[in-house]
């Protein structure tokens, strides 16, 4: 009932105030109200509001428009226009036309173009038949008047119906409400001042406060301002007032120029309001994201760092105080590479550039960094480039984790895997790896020696395994004292040991190993319970050169060792 009454008032006012020379109304806002209602409802429930507004249109046309002869045709035309616009908006648009530029475009095409255009010719034809006025001027007036009314008033009616206007008023403080009221009064005053006189062409003046209202109050400010301008300008121009009288033409031409002026203003302001709304939503999301980001980073154990593409630090989370000892505020503006251990500069720089070249991927890498006290610690970074709206990389975000404990454990595990537990010497695996590295690095020459403790089983049988272990440990201690720093001593298993002597000739190797053999034989080894034992060793020495096969060299040394044992032990044999 209320909807029908409001539609009747709007239709009657348009018919009474904006019809010129007996033609159609030049500004029609009643359909905007029904479009706003239908867009918010399921099509299955359109019957009641369409019926109410149809009856209201019938009465308004019969009483204030073309008379009862035109009531039914114009009712059909008005309702048809609304149904076309509402159906298109339901199918392709959104309730909020200002949600994006795309949805605003759909709204303009549906409510401002498709609906009025579909019914413009029928309206012009009916007006011609009823009044004898020309078809095309009526059709053009119908299209412009109905399009202008729909574009200007539908957004405002929608905001009122969904409660956006009420929520804005409730949320705004008294000062902001006063500011909005003063601005709207100023727009009304400026609009009246411009269109109540016909001496100066001041049509540009209302644009200034309307633009200000749009920037200050968004879509609500835009549609309220446009409604004020359209209403005042339409009524005053229809009554022969306003700067358009400066055009030497008929009132209908003045009204048509006004329609174009208002349409241009509406189509200028509404996209601005839509884009401002989009930016406002993005800004709010950005603020929320920033708050979440700071909440997470300020309580995270990992370091979060953002840098410019040139590596300059833009932000560091507070966790760097605990992990690196740095003041995060003092790091802003510094180069991130300055905190990396010099030995890892090239590695880190290469990974950073890789992240810049592939913004869609996350690059992970490990490196050593220098803490505030000068110590080096291991860190792992997960790095991803940040791309701006223009598609250009404008920074890099890194999540940095302290992995020093893990790396220390890895080193310890690797050392344990390569170390003989009893002697602390390298084990067979580490010996083989080092020997291969020596062969593959192109060392000009070198020798390898294999030692075996003579009659070791007798020591175990007579004094026990603890005594045997002590003898093996003594061999390791004595051997390390008699080889060079670059040589390697390893326990190959049981009582067998290997020595790599890189860069020596066989004669030099024989001299080194002979000195070691004599030192071992001269040592009295305490094995517990007041007992001491001495040991002798046999050894085989084989020369090697670059790119030789390791197994072949070791077989030659083993053959020489067996010759030494066969010749009576406690001696050294050089492989042939």
UniProtKB/TrEMBL annotation:
Molecular function GO terms recorded: catalytic activity
Major subcellular site: membrane
InterPro entries: Biofilm_reg_signaling, GGDEF_dom, MASE1, Nucleotide_cyclase, PAC, PAS, PAS-assoc_C, PAS-like_dom_sf
Membrane topology: Multi-pass membrane protein
Cellular location(s): Cell membrane
Domain GGDEF: 444-576
Domain PAC: 363-415
Keywords, alphabetical: Cell membrane, Membrane, Transmembrane, Transmembrane helix
Domain PAS intervals: 289-359
Record has Disulfide bond as a keyword: no
Gene Ontology CC annotation, any one: plasma membrane
TM annotation in the entry: 24-41, 48-68, 74-92, 104-130, 142-165, 177-195, 225-246, 258-277
Family annotation (NCBIfam families): GGDEF, sensory_box
Name recorded for this polypeptide: Diguanylate cyclase
């Amino acid at each position: 009932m209320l909807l029908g009454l409001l539609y009747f008032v709007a239709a009657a006012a348009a018919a009474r105030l904006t019809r010129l020379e007996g033609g159609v109304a030049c500004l029609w806002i009643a359909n905007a109200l029904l479009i706003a209602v239908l867009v918010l409802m399921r099509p299955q429930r359109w019957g009641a509001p369409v019926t109410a507004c149809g009856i209201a249109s019938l009465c308004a046309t019969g009483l204030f428009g073309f008379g009862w002869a035109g009531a039914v045709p114009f009712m059909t035309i008005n309702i048809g226009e609304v149904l076309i616009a509402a159906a298109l908006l339901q199918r392709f648009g959104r309730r909020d036309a200002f949600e994006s530029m795309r949805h605003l475009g759909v709204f303009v095409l549906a409510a401002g173009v498709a609906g009025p255009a579909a019914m413009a010719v029928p309206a012009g034809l009916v007006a011609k038949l009823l009044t004898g006025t020309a078809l095309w001027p009526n059709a053009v007036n119908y299209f412009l008047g109905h399009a202008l009314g729909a574009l200007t008033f539908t957004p405002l009616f929608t905001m009122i119906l969904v409660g956006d206007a009420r929520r804005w008023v409730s949320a705004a403080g008294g000062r902001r409400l006063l500011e909005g009221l003063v601005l709207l009064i100023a727009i009304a005053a400026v609009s009246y001042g411009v269109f109540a006189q016909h001496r100066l062409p001041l049509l540009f003046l209302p644009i200034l406060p309307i633009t200000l209202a749009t920037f200050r109050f968004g879509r609500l400010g835009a549609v309220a301002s446009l409604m004020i301008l359209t209403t005042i300008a339409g009524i005053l121009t229809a009554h022969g007032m306003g700067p358009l009288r400066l055009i030497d033409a008929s009132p209908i031409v003045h009204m048509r120029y006004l329609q174009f002026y208002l349409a241009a203003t509406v189509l200028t302001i509404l996209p601005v309001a839509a884009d401002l709304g989009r930016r406002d939503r993005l800004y709010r999301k950005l603020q929320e994201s920033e708050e979440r980001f700071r909440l997470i980073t300020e309580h995270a154990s990992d370091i979060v760092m953002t840098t410019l593409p040139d590596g300059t630090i833009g932000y560091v989370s507070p966790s760097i105080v605990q992990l690196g000892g740095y003041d995060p505020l003092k790091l802003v503006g510094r180069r991130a590479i300055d905190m990396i251990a010099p030995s890892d500069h090239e590695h880190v720089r290469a990974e950073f550039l890789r992240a810049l070249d592939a913004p869609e991927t996350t690059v992970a890498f490990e490196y050593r960094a220098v803490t505030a006290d000068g110590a080096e610690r291991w860190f792992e970074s997960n790095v991803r480039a940040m791309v701006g709206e223009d598609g250009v990389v404008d920074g890099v975000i890194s999540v940095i984790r302290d992995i020093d404990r893990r790396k220390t454990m890895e080193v310890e595990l690797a050392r344990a895997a390569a170390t003989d537990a009893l002697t602390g010497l390298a084990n067979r695996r580490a010996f083989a790896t080092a020997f291969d590295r020596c062969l593959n690095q192109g060392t000009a020459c070198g020798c390898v020696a294999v030692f075996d403790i003579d009659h070791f089983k007798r020591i175990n049988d007579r004094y026990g395994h603890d005594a045997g272990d002590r003898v093996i440990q003594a061999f390791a201690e004595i051997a390390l004292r008699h080889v060079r720093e670059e040589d390697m001593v390893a326990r190959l298993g049981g009582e067998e040991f290997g020595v790599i002597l890189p860069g020596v000739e066989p004669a030099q190797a024989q001299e080194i190993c002979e000195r070691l053999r004599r030192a071992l034989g001269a040592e009295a080894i305490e094995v517990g319970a007041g007992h001491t034992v001495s040991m002798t060793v046999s050894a085989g020495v084989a020369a090697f050169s670059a790119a030789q096969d390791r197994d072949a060299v070791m077989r030659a040394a083993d053959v020489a060792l067996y010759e030494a044992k066969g010749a009576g032990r406690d001696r050294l044999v050089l492989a042939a």
